[in-house]
Amino acid sequence: MPLPVRPRLLAAIKPSSFAPAAARNTPRILPASAHQHRNMSNKSEGEWRAVLSPEQFRVLRQKGTEPAGTGTYNKHKEEGVYSCAGCGTPLYKSTTKFDSGCGWPAFFDAIPGAVKRHDDSSYGMTRTEITCAACGGHLGHVFKGEGFPTPTDERHCVNSISLNFAKDK
Prior knowledge:
This protein is of the alpha+beta class.
């Protein structure tokens, strides 16, 4: 039985020097299921507070929202992969990011299996909440039918504080 790998360490693992040159120069994106070997949604509040900043904890674990236009990744344009700030699971590729003008990073699709959808009827409206499939961290909401010229006609409106970014090499 292999030893469990802590997801934050997973991002630091580099392909071995035995890998072909193409593999060493390409970021490795694991499917979300590779990160689900350990159910991190069972972490205690204290364990989450120990690994997240107070603002990350408020958004990821208490379903908060960062103020519009304040997030690091709203206007971010580098090519790479956005991952969960809580557990390191890859969530979105930069090729699915677009400028929606909403004040938060917007994506038209997630990496398959990385994001779960839940009905959210808070604040007197019905929305679709999106969470990290591996750790259950709150990412934001998904909206459909807004008319953006994207392949899915969806806008995943994601809090920057819920994300980390690794650029393509």
